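**Tokenised fold:**
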Amino acid sequence: MTIWTPELPEDGPRYRRIADAMAEAITRGELAPGERLPPQRRLADKLGVTIGTITRAYAEAQRQGWVESRVGSGTYVRHREAESTATFRAGQPVENGVVDMSMSLPPPHPLRPQGLRDTLLALADDPASLQRAVDYQPEYGLESHRRQLAEWLGHLGMSAEPESLVITQGGQHGLTLALQALTRPGELVAADALTYPGFIGAARQAHLKLLGVPLDEHGMDIEALSRLCARQPPRLVYTTPEQNNPTGACLTEARRERLVALAREHDFWLIEDNVQYLPEADRGTPLIELAPERTLRIFSTSKVLAGGLRIGTLELPEALLGRIGSALRAQTWMVPPLMVETTCRWIASDTSRRLLDWQTHELEARQRLARERLADYPTSGRERSSNLWVTLPAGRRGSEVQELLDQRGVRVSTPEPFCVGSEPAPQALRLCLGPPASREELDRGLRIILETLAEPPCSPWHTM
């Protein structure tokens, strides 16, 4: 049994302060999923409060989803990561008539299977490349492949030197490599209070303490991060400066410069995730250009070419190449050469550029359509993003709306899987505009969402 004695914030009702401290301890890894909390009377005695205060605190933590009560057994920390993972259904078939807007995927297009077919046929007629594809290769990838991937990044507006690139099995693998190379179990890492669930899962797998930094429409609140650093600097900060997932917030230039200054002052690393990135007119200065000595940049071909290729890049300072190479060898020895060769041939073809141009214009059109349909509700998202963040009206809960939509054949995501930190999840939905087969299918889903939001909210006592 955990003998947990929190340090309480100074402001607010005692029960609320205890619940907030509990959530913070869970987020930081001090209270692990499945751990039993102290009996209420024992904790009340330790803190010098009434048992009624502890009862209210436990109830508040349970309401926020941090703990669960088991009759006759006590109160336990919930396994939130399992719950979050279940929200995403990658690779599962979509039933007929269902409009799936739950996964951040590119719009479907015949150029994808056609481009892959043409690439594989060309590869089959090239004996030298086939031999290379079945041989062992350096853990970082062949120089020719790294050069081609660097050129592709340049085409997307991300200047990179081949010597600074390591080829990965997609963005998630790059993130895992970075955490393995830079951190040790128990260290503190920070991210936006709403962030990519894959980072949350990877950090927990690495037994790291997670801290969420508040964010607004301009990205991470750097002054809040500064206050955190004054208490305990993190080992690293993970951020998606061009497009927060799920809110779409873009970090302002001033905040980027302040973030870099903080990183240098407190000596922490920066992980810049650009997996969701498509070139935007108002692109900011990449963190890796502002602080190349302490920034690692992650990219993947998943959101532009195809998620099944599982090829990405990790751009990093030269000083880290040895550590990353060791981590790569320990995990996979090398990225499958056949997939790297296929991807590099594809991105060198005219098909990849045609696909990128089409996708850019298609996402712009889908964003316009969604914003027009949902004009009565606050929305945010980048012009060329697959994601749209919709803030719900007062009295509506994301989980309730999600359940109603699921019954009506529309899949969406709620904020809970993206949450880092002790604050309750905002009442909002993330809509992914890419997966629907056409704009007509997307429009049908948007109309169902609009009709559902126009209905009065369900009673909290109503069960569906």
Remarks:
- Confidence is low (pLDDT under 50) at residues 81-87, 459-464.
- The chain has three domains: 14-78, 83-110+352-454, 111-349.
- The domain at 83-110+352-454 is CATH 3.90.1150.10 (Aspartate Aminotransferase, domain 1).
